[in-house]
Every structure is written in structure tokens, then in C-alpha cells.
Amino acid sequence: MVQASARRALSPAADRVLDVLGFLATQSGPVAAAVIARDLALPRSSVYQFLASLQSRGLVVHFPEDRKYGLGVGAFELSSAYLRQEPITRLGAPLLATLTDRLGESTHLAVLHGRDVLYLVEERATHRPTLVTDVGVRLPGHLTATGRSLLGAAPAAHVRALYAEDRALERRTGVGPRTYRELRAVLGRVRELGYGFEESDVTPGISSVAIAVLDREGWPQAAIATSFPSEARDPATRRDVAERLRPFAAELGRRLGAMR
């Protein structure tokens, strides 16, 4: 068994290896070892050692003609295993059950998939209206509270790329942003408030409030939301609802490994 002191000594090296793997995951294509060393402020000799270790496990592949490195099939296998195990669903479902009990309203958990939000969990409250946010349903992200909270937390360049054309901004109930400029204003309001919301943009008479779940880099992973009849809540109470959602979003982030 490795002694505690030895584990502590090995931890920095393990961290650096994971830094290299994480860096490769953020790139649009293979990169040179020199670029990795420069951007991570690591000795080039160490980077080559880390890459060799990752390559031996299939997590990294070397492209000799280009003198570059990219993610290997082992990384794909890890991502596939992640999807099979459904961690967001498994970790989020118990939290939503508790949240629904406390709020007395239906709650849901969604992720951003392109311009849509995909609903992974819905916890329905008794004697409340049936919602369209059932598990597996996709809705336009720019219309939903979950989508707006996720888009509001994403980099502006990413949002602009998703909505390069105004015709991507479809409407369901006759309300909601019609142009990228209008969407940008909506998301500016989301960032200002710290939560996403919509009022009858998806279903007439139904409002929603959502909080984004962020990863350690500040990227949105998912969103937790609650929906309720619009007349049941004064608009001034949206902030109170958001504050009740916030600790559950933070807890899901913690469970998923986000550093707080």
C-alpha cells in the first residue's frame, strides 16, 4: 500500500497529467507538445513524459507527420462510459425529489444540446398542471428558463455561434426573443439577475425559474428549474424562488465534482 506521504508526493504529478488531458479536451484538434507546455506553464520534458503515459493507456494519440497530440480512443471510451452511467440523472433525481417536496411545485433538470435543452429528470408535484418538460423532451433553449440560464452562463462567442441566423429563434406561443439582438438582451438580464426565467414563452399561463449548474471552469453543465402557473406567483417573487433553487444547483455541482 502506498503511504500517505508518498501519495502526497505523487499528487502534483497526477494533477499535471490530468491538466494535460483536460487541455486536450478543450482543443478543436490536435496540438503540439510545445503549445501544451506553453499554455499550461509546464516544462516541455515533463509534458512529453505525461503524454507518453497517456498514450500508453490509449487516452492520447500521437500524429507523427503533424508532430501533434490529440485525444485517443481511450478518452472516447471514458466519455461513453460516463454517458452510460448517467451521473447527472442519478445525482440530480434525489435532489429534485426533495426540492419538489419543499416547493410544492414540479421541478426538472435539463442540459444544453446544441440550441435545444434536453430534459433528463422531471419530478412532478401532486395537483399541479402537467408540463411539456417530460424526460427526453427537447425544447428551444432560448425560450426556456433552463436554456436561458445555461446560455447566460456560456461564453458570448459560443452563444453567437449557436444563433448565427435569426431564423434559429423559433417561437411557440407568440412571445420570446425573435432576433439575436433580443436574445442577447434576455441573456444580459439573466446574467444580471443570476438566474433564468420565462413567462408563457413555452406554455401559456406557465412560468419557470432556473439556476445553472457550473463545472470547475465555470461552464454550465445542467440547469435545475421549477415551473408553476403564472398567476400563482407575483413576478417580484421570482428572486425568492431562484434563491430556493440555488443551494440545490450548488449541491449538484459539488456532487459532479465542481470546485466551490
From TrEMBL:
<feature type="domain" description="HTH iclR-type">
    <location>
        <begin position="11"/>
        <end position="73"/>
    </location>
</feature>
<dbReference type="InterPro" id="IPR014757">
    <property type="entry name" value="Tscrpt_reg_IclR_C"/>
</dbReference>
<dbReference type="InterPro" id="IPR036388">
    <property type="entry name" value="WH-like_DNA-bd_sf"/>
</dbReference>
<dbReference type="InterPro" id="IPR029016">
    <property type="entry name" value="GAF-like_dom_sf"/>
</dbReference>
<keyword id="KW-0238">DNA-binding</keyword>
<feature type="domain" description="IclR-ED">
    <location>
        <begin position="74"/>
        <end position="258"/>
    </location>
</feature>
<dbReference type="InterPro" id="IPR005471">
    <property type="entry name" value="Tscrpt_reg_IclR_N"/>
</dbReference>
<keyword id="KW-0804">Transcription</keyword>
<dbReference type="Pfam" id="PF09339">
    <property type="entry name" value="HTH_IclR"/>
</dbReference>
<keyword id="KW-0805">Transcription regulation</keyword>
<dbReference type="Pfam" id="PF01614">
    <property type="entry name" value="IclR_C"/>
</dbReference>
<dbReference type="InterPro" id="IPR050707">
    <property type="entry name" value="HTH_MetabolicPath_Reg"/>
</dbReference>
<dbReference type="InterPro" id="IPR036390">
    <property type="entry name" value="WH_DNA-bd_sf"/>
</dbReference>
<protein>
    <submittedName>
        <fullName>IclR family transcriptional regulator</fullName>
    </submittedName>
</protein>
